[in-house]
Amino acid sequence: MAASSKTPAPASPSASVLLVSSLNEILLLHRVRSSSSFPSAHVFPGGNVDEFHDGDEGLYDSEKRHEDGPAYRKAATRETFEESGILLAKDVEIGDRERNEGRKRVHAREMRFGEWLNGRGGVPDVDGLIPFTRWITPTYLPKRFTTQMYLYFLPLSTRDKGLKSIPGGTIDGPKEFTVPEPTSDGGIEHTAARFLPPSQWLSMQMQGEIILPPPQVYLLSLIDLFLKPASDVKVLEEQRRRLMEFVESDERQTPFSQMCISPVMIRRQKSDGRSVLALHDPGYELRNTNRKGDDCRVVLSKFGTNGAPKSVEVRWKNEVLAEERKWDGQHESKGKL
């Protein structure tokens, strides 16, 4: 679809978290059917930056709108708490009843998230958030976001369900951290919350069992290269170490921590009808800056009549374009016979 000649809608600041469990599984939330964004889809916890809770740090009046910063990090920890009940915080242990009451009060804006947490002796673990791409909604859509994605590692544990962490640094997660079972927010925005291996989420999507938006498929596909089901803590730690090397590698022109992506449809595959979404564009607002997207990969997706993506897949761009050229050549030859 061509971009509108009108001034694009401003991109609202938002944050989202790829939460990695003690078994290196990823948390996804099932959005309600009535949601205005990604209805019925499975998504990472996250949402809009809220000035009431997070401040805005000048986000709406400067280039900081598209840069990682305190407001984005506060929003990431708050939204994770509101939506899943998992509290990314230091120096605090909170029981289930108090936790659930806090979720309701924070969501209803009866109390600022930081004040509620500070009153219990804790502080948000904003330093544990690791930037992992930014996504800017294309200009032709009426509702736009500039979303900072983060990785966050929950503690490695010798037991499946969240108790105490093994002491360590960022890859091991915070020290002395209790992880509750994730829960939905009672149907306000989500109906379920669940940790599964990245490979299982991707398989369920390809089989049509769940809906995953393109950013989720892209990031899960990258993580799936490293995080695999395992029970040995040393194996899980090594998986995290390799993932972090990949995320922070300076071998690419743009590391994933700085990468900014605004998908652009470049063609529709004649072989299966899927749209080919290029990922090189950093977005309308950042085209005259040094920010870059991913020039090597594309996302393939069909879109239903309601816009829901399906059969979403991440591929190397050069391979997809080569396959399409081959397909074109074969069918041109048949047409001449």
Strand arrangement, major sheet: 4-1-8-7-10
Spatial shape? globular
Structural class: alpha+beta
**What is the tally of beta strands?**
14
Number of helices, where a helix is a run of at least 4 consecutive DSSP H or I residues: 8
Q: Distance between the terminal alpha carbons, to the nearest Å?
A: 35 Å
Largest sheet: 5 strands, mixed
Radius of gyration: 21 Å
- Ranges where pLDDT stays below 50 over 5 or more residues in a row are 158-169
The helix content is: 25-40%
Q: How would you spell out the order of helices and strands?
A: EEEEHHEHHEEEEHHHEEEEEH
What is the mean pLDDT?
Answer: 87
- Beta-strand level of the residues, as a percent range? 15-25%
Structure description:
The chain is α+β, with helices and mostly antiparallel strands. The protein is 28% helix and 23% strand. The chain has 8 helices and 14 strands. Strands 4-1-8-7-10 form a 5-stranded mixed sheet, covered by helices on one side. It has a 4-stranded antiparallel sheet with strand order 11-12-13-14. Helix 5 (198-206) crosses helix 6 (214-224). The longest helix has 20 residues, at 317-336. The protein is globular, with a radius of gyration of 21 Å. Mean pLDDT is 87; it is low at 158-169.
